[in-house]
Amino acid sequence: MASKTLNVLAIFAHPDDLSFFCSGTLAKWAEQEHKIYAICVTSGNVGTLRTDLKMEEVAKMREKELRAANEILGVKETLILGYPDGGFINAPELREKLVYYVRKYKADRVVTFDPWVAYEVHPDHLVVGRMASEAAAFAAFPLLYPEQIREGVEPYACSEVWFMGLLGHPPNCFVDISQTLEKKVRAALKFEATLTLLARLFAPNIDPTRVTSEDLKTLSKHADTLLRFMASTIGEKVKLKAAEAFFVQKTLPGHFDNFQQIMLEMLGNPPEPPKIC
Ligand SMILES: [Zn+2]
User: Fold this and answer.
1) Environment of ion ligand 1 (residues, CB < 5 A)
2) In angstroms, what is the span from residue 58 Cα to ligand 1's centroid?
3) Which domain, by its residues, includes 167?
4) Distance from residue 13's CA to the centre of ligand 1 (Å)
5) What CATH number has the domain bearing residue 64?
6) Cα–Cα distance for residue pair 257/159, rounded to 1 Å
7) pLDDT tens digits for 249-273?
């Protein structure tokens, strides 16, 4: 039993986004009895290379995959906001919704994309990471979106934003996922649509526009290997068998609490060594 039960809100763009970067951590926190909520901003309705499916069918399939994966991970509630996939999110509208959910779930910790990463080309990842960060930092202001307060949610000061993935700032926090790696792999393999996207990387002999069930088995094996390789490579850095890495920022109302860290880094000091969290 965890000493203090935290409300964790994972905010991501597409149904499979948690699989590679943070699902082992979410499963671990769920096992420690923290409450995990997930908000998938788009329906992911263009996220396949198959040519035999319509957008609505892809959205339906991916929703089913997400719910099955999140059940394995122990996520308490999964919401899909249903924006179309591929760069059509209205950012201010999304921020208002996310502020509402930070308040409603009393989110102590938001997990999302780092919107300041290098070479991120997907507009949905950028806008979701940015709006999720803003929501975490702004949900405490009582005069912001006052109709939400009138409707019954309270302002809430979220304390931390955890950026997943390794393309931005060097990580300052590693989570040991050796006990939940199996759950992570099982959950990730639910995403058939994602497996088709891996074909180009790992199985050039497979035609991703018309995958067979045999192809999916082959691709599942590649995904399984990749996930274990990522976990052990990240873990090696900090002498763990399997890990996920994050850049964690504490929040203040309207800001991150990082002024001292930025000043030290700007003066040429190396970043603080990462912690095992
Ligand atoms: Zn994505």
Assistant:
1) 13-14, 17
2) 14
3) 7-276
4) 5
5) 3.40.50.10320
6) 10
7) 999 999 999 888 888 989 999 888 8
